Amino acid sequence: MTVSDPAACVQRELWGGAVTCTVPARLLDVSDMRPVPDHQEVYADAEADQALIFEIVEHDAAVPDEECGRHIFQDAATGNEAASASLESVTSLGPQDAPHVQAGAYKCLVRGRQTVRRGRVPTDTDVLLAVLRLPQVQSDLVISLSTPVSTAEAAAARTEAPGIMAQALGTLRVVDWDLFGGGEH
Staple 98 to which of 19, 41, 42, 169, CB 3.0 to 4.6 Å? Predict the structure, then answer.
């Protein structure tokens, strides 16, 4: 099944239904298996070692929109204790890419690679990272999709990764803005 197969996808309720999004059914809710921080929603496919993470971070007004993708990618590499990180591209997204996100919100997609430890083994991992800036609620919503480069099981997942991200962005809806705690929406 591919991400374009509707039977292979499900609508997920993030943060208790405050946000909804459609993702591949094979990506399971990690919070059913282990604790996940309150500001994150994590879905993973253990067979392909692929992870899709939705994260609410504080909006940093000191970081200009045109630098936020690079900044958040580097911050993620630091948080992942990456041995190396290379940013391939940062692309601004238009209203058609995330049609249910407020007009005027800055949106970008970052493509890069990080070398992270999986157990004791360093693994090259492709990273797609979408940043949705929501300054009106003093938050940014970050969606990251990581897929190992070298495993045979991950080959199909790597091929599907851009479609998974496009689908997540295209179906993402904020249902309850109170999730973000403050500001005007």
Answer: 169
